[in-house]
Amino acid sequence: MCGIVGYIGFKEGLQVQEVILSGLEKLEYRGYDSAGICIYNDGIQIFKDKGRVAHLRTLVDNSLNSKLGIGHTRWATHGIPSQSNSHPHQSKTGRFTIVHNGVIENEMELREKYLEDYPFISDTDTEVIAALIEYFEENGEDVELAIRHVMGIIKGSYALGIVDSRTPDVFYAAKNKSPLLVGLGDGFNMIGSDAMSIIKYTNQFIELHDEEFIVLKSDSVSIYSILGAKIERTPYTETLDASDTEKGIYPYYMLKEIDEQPYAIRRIVAKYFTDTDYNINPNIVEVLSNTDRIYIVAAGTSMNAGFVGKQLFESIAKIPTEVHIASEFVYNTPLISKKPLFIFLSQSGETADSRAVLVKIKKLGYKSLTITNVKGSTLSREADYTLLLHAGVEIAVASTKAYTSQIAVMAILAANEANMDVSFLKTQLALVANIIETITDNKLIYKELADKYLVKRNCFYIGRHVDYYVAIEAALKLKEISYIQTEGFAAGELKHGTIALIEQGTPVIAIISQENINLNTRSNIKEVKSRGANVIVISLKSLSSATDQVVIDDVDPILAPLVTIVPTQLLAYYAALGRGLDIDKPRNLAKSVTVE
Ligand code: G6P
Description:
Layout: E1 3-9, H1 16-27, E2 34-40, E3 44-50, H2 53-59, E4 68-74, E5 89-90, E6 96-101, H3 107-114, H4 126-138, H5 143-153, E7 158-164, E8 171-176, E9 181-184, E10 188-192, E11 204-207, E12 212-216, E13 221-225, E14 230-231, E15 236-237, H6 253-259, H7 261-272, H8 282-290, E16 293-298, H9 300-315, E17 321-325, H10 326-329, E18 340-346, H11 352-363, E19 367-372, H12 378-382, E20 385-388, H13 401-417, H14 422-441, H15 444-453, E21 458-463, H16 466-482, E22 485-490, E23 507-512, H17 518-529, E24 534-540, E25 550-552, H18 561-578
Parallel strand pairs: 16-17, 16-18, 18-19, 19-20, 21-22, 21-23, 23-24, 24-25
Antiparallel strand pairs: 1-4, 1-10, 2-3, 2-4, 5-6, 6-7, 7-8, 8-12, 9-10, 9-11, 11-15, 12-13, 13-14
Helix pairs in contact: 4-5, 7-13, 7-14, 9-13, 9-16, 14-18, 15-18, 16-18
The protein binds 6-O-phosphono-alpha-D-glucopyranose.
6-O-phosphono-alpha-D-glucopyranose (G6P) binds next to helix 9.
């Protein structure tokens, strides 16, 4: 959802353009409609255009010798992807140049109040910020006060990098709701929307909080509150390994991350068990034991993992559980039970829709637990408790290993609550890891199935019981990267209307992992077959029939989603590959959605 990076200073062998461009490449998962950079070299130089960072690279003048640069990669919210809407944006005299991640909700109001005849060049809300800084500076405020003044009157989210062309030995940053970190170097300092964009250059980081204003020089970083009070904050050492963010031998991150799932599951087992017991923060265990209802709040793939979580909490831990779309919950809040526990599922820990719910329920005094892959992320910092996924960095927009890791962590949490036998669960999870390995070792099957069947413009996944929840995620995976219109359907519900869409050759993929629904789902398969569908069946071995195309080794049925999802991830991957699409960066999407 837009990424920003900034650098000031000098380090032997480091060229500012390269620092900014390589940072932006790491941030492209956040948006890739357009990209731009500002370099100070005896004056401001801006290079920007719609398209990827790779395209921007071809525009940037490599001969420039500079000590200051800011950059941006965009996921369009205000205005189409175009050169003029690309960041950086400037104030009308060209004095202030800014990059922005976030959304200014009251931009129209601000335009009317302060900027009536202002010659705006772009359709973005960001240009309003640049214009306002200049407006207040022209009205007698010093630059720092002008920026803090603007921070005080804008409503919404922002991570900002701001350059004043008159003072190239300093640049400014500000943060509210959108993520931003400071990286401290020897002779230089940086900002970035995440650790990956900085880690190549330093592992010394400072965390920033909302409504903070930062002044960066090559040898100092000062943090202030919006009112100008100095804030002292101790840096921390980031443990992310720069090589974790590389694709290595893989053509796409998505395939790498699918393959990493067995390791992720094994790491979760290592983290959440001792030799003989569960290893979960006792405060979380206590809160869970005392709750009368769990509310899982999430978006996208994380929400789909939440449905499986509901199944786990209800069937294992016997705690009633509701799953809510984060963006709906904020404005249409359901009745809450007496002792609720809110679980925020989020790979990134930054999803604005989920965060809006967290802010709301905290005000109501309810307890919260975030299950996330990113240590120190906003949802992790702001919730009462955190459980980490330990899945390693996930970069492909289509989430895979975070989904299975979220389910594994929730299974352990539910099992702990139910005092489930530790060795049984550990053995089952070890089995899960091995089965996933078998699936990923035999990728050709999925390529052949995708090439043969996933050639129509629409497709259905069907399942009953927990297979229905997996079908929803499988459908999301296929549609988001292959653009095949896919629906995940409760197998028994299809006949109540949607079966009208089945035509000769429509692919229908059925998932069967639960004994009590095996025969019912097979009846539904017959119904679609007799209307012309091409059916692929993914089943567990003990429930399989001779004609099933994908038969997976048996695992305890409660953990079946951890294995049945994997073939569907591979089918999506190969369907997209067959269409020649950019698998890691599907159109119109971003991995981390930090606007509501
Ligand atoms: C975006 C991504 C999805 C992701 C969702 C929730 O829409 O494209 O892949 O599932 O955000 O993200 P989170 O980081 O909260 O899990």
